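Notes, p. 3: input format for complexes.
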Amino acid sequence: MKRLLITGASGFLGWNISRIAKSDWTVFGTSFYHTLPIQDVSLMTVDLTLLRDLKRLFDDVKPDAVIHTAAMTDPNLCQQNRTLSHNINTKVPINIAGLCSGLDIPCLFTSSDLVFDGLTPPYSEDDEPSPISFYGEQKAMAEAGMKDRYPSTVICRMPLMFGDPGPMATSFIQLMLRAIQSGKTIDLFTDEFRTPVSGRDAAKGLLMVLNIRPGMIHLGGSERISRYEFGKLLCESLGLSNARLNPCRQQDLKMSAPRPPDVSLDSTRARALGFNPKSLKEEMEALRE
Ligand SMILES: NC(=O)c1ccc[n+]([C@@H]2O[C@H](COP(=O)([O-])OP(=O)(O)OC[C@H]3O[C@@H](n4cnc5c(N)ncnc54)[C@H](OP(=O)(O)O)[C@@H]3O)[C@@H](O)[C@H]2O)c1
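Output follows (289 residues plus NAP):
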């Protein structure tokens, strides 16, 4: 089998990709702080920001394809640590594109819906990035730099993702469920909209796209929904009748990173290629299993 390198395999999305990819690929993954094993995946601990170590990783693995998911993913942390987050979120992807270019192998990058300002949704692949946070800006700069370094890089803009995070990572719903279990009230925005997708569907979509290599693609979920409605649906689906959800507005909570109001993705192009994520309710009910 061909060799697939997945950076960030200890993370939410990388883990979801790893567990599906291993039926068709020999999978090599990277982690940074987390070091628990993943079944049938060769996991290596690497600081990708060290170019020498990144090059050595490529020399050791000799990949036939690369999916680059590793990143600093919390927009608030990126806002507070601009240089550190720029290194992992912008410099590393561009270096990876350069190494993939040298080997002439497929290179797929997971970007974000947060490259948009959220004022004119839904966003298609033809819309220009208009980031309002450092995280969004870093992702947009990575996209442009990778295209420049290696024009056949596949850029996948991902929406908010949820689901099983594997043994090492977390997704925002685990934080919500923990808060609900401890009886806390959760503030959820009624005026912030996304097109969420499960990690499982996202992983399937990314592996499909890796074969087709369409250039730029949006892998949004099937429904546009506010954070508050998402929380309500999650609690209904899991039978959490005791959850205390407080509907609030973005302006009610002070956060380091500015938040766009509606970064819903138009994923018509991906649907035409066969990317058909399940409904949110179906994916949420699957979390009971
Ligand atoms: N989750 C979402 O809702 C969402 C939405 C849109 C786009 N995305 C994009 O999708 C990708 C995956 O997101 P995710 O939620 O799966 O992220 P995550 O769970 O936060 O995982 C991030 C991964 O990056 C690794 N990493 C961080 N800094 C590193 C470094 N210096 N060297 C090597 N590895 C490093 C982490 O390793 P350790 O954990 O081992 O330290 C982890 O494996 C990211 O590119 C993100 O921007 C995510």
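The first strand starts at residue 3 and ends at 7.
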